[in-house]
Amino acid sequence: MPGWQEFVIDPLSAALTGLADSVGGFGIAIVLMTLAIRVLIFPLSVRGIRAQRRIQLLQPKVNEVKRRARGDRQKESQLTMALYREHGVSPMSGCLPLLLQMPVLLAMYGALLTVGTCIGADGIRIDQGVMGLGADSYSNCAAAGGSVPLDEDFLWFNLAQIDRTIEFLFLPDWWPAPLTYISVLAILGGLTFWLQTYMAQPVQEPTGPQATFQRVMQIYPLFFVFIGWFFFSGILLYWVLAGFIQIGQQFFISGLGKFEPLLSANQLALAQRMGAGYFARPGSQPPPESGPPPPVEDEPTEPRPMGSSSNKTRKRRRRRRRRRG
């Protein structure tokens, strides 16, 4: 897409290269760029996380709708959507924090790919099998600019190559190449995705469209581990950092979600003091119950003997007469 490349990827790759020139390496540049991107999309993340919280708070009412539907899936779906419309909640809005990261991830991937292509044209070795680059790909070198090599070591991995943290030795030649190593970055990326998905789920089991969507979202962590196994480490570094930042935002805005039943009462109270509600607004409190209030039962009173009140009245009158006389 020419527009995507021209207006998103090229400026991002130029900024990334300039930042790497300033700080002396692409590893620190990716960390700083991740923080900058998270600050820019913070308002949208807050909006999506608060939508997640409203869905969590509505879950008891959704379960009541399921009880009233009595197994009628069509009726249950209609009543659930009507409940969401009544409270101004979209079942898909709660997944905004996760979905929002996809275009940002693609943009960052394209930027790092452009930088890697440019440096590859300068003769620095880059894993061609991972990045899938050909001779025609070197046309974007001018967009990146700069001369800081992406092919550098950062922590325990090389930014331009696959993360082979643990490699297995003495394997036969016919052994599949992806099974000769373990990518810790890919596993961490899948773990952060799973934590975000689990924290976004309500404490009580969802029903209807929300339950179906959450079952689909549970597959994505495994999918990410699979594709991350073949990605170069630079993009995995961005994903892991962005994931942990998103987890922190979810904790401070909406709490632990489905992790709450796993904590003791003291741990839950401490977590609620530290996290949930810190950035929450009054609208994130549980919605008011609709319908008439429940009838208030009168407190039982002991039966009084017949004539007891009239006898007391007569005694008071007699005392008044004596005082007057």
Query: Which range best describes the helical content: under 10%, 10-25%, 25-40%, 40-55%, 55-70% or over 70%?
Result: 55-70%
Low-confidence stretches: 119-148, 277-302
Beta-strand residue fraction: under 5%
* Main beta sheet strand tally, sense and closure: 2 strands, antiparallel
Model description:
With 325 residues, the protein is mainly α. The chain has one domain (2-284). It has helices at residues 2-23, 26-40, 42-69, 73-86, 96-121, 128-131, 141-144, 184-199, 208-217, 220-228, 233-254, 265-274, 308-324; strands at 153-154, 157-158, 166-167, 181-182. The strands form 2 sheets. The chain has a two-stranded antiparallel sheet with strand order 1-2. It has a two-stranded antiparallel ribbon with strand order 3-4. A hairpin with a 2-residue loop joins strand 1 and strand 2 (157-158). Helix 1 crosses helix 2 (26-40) and helix 3 crosses helix 4. The longest helix has 28 residues, at 42-69. The radius of gyration is 31 Å and the shape is elongated. It starts with a helix and ends with a helix. Mean pLDDT is 68; it is low at 119-148 and 277-302.
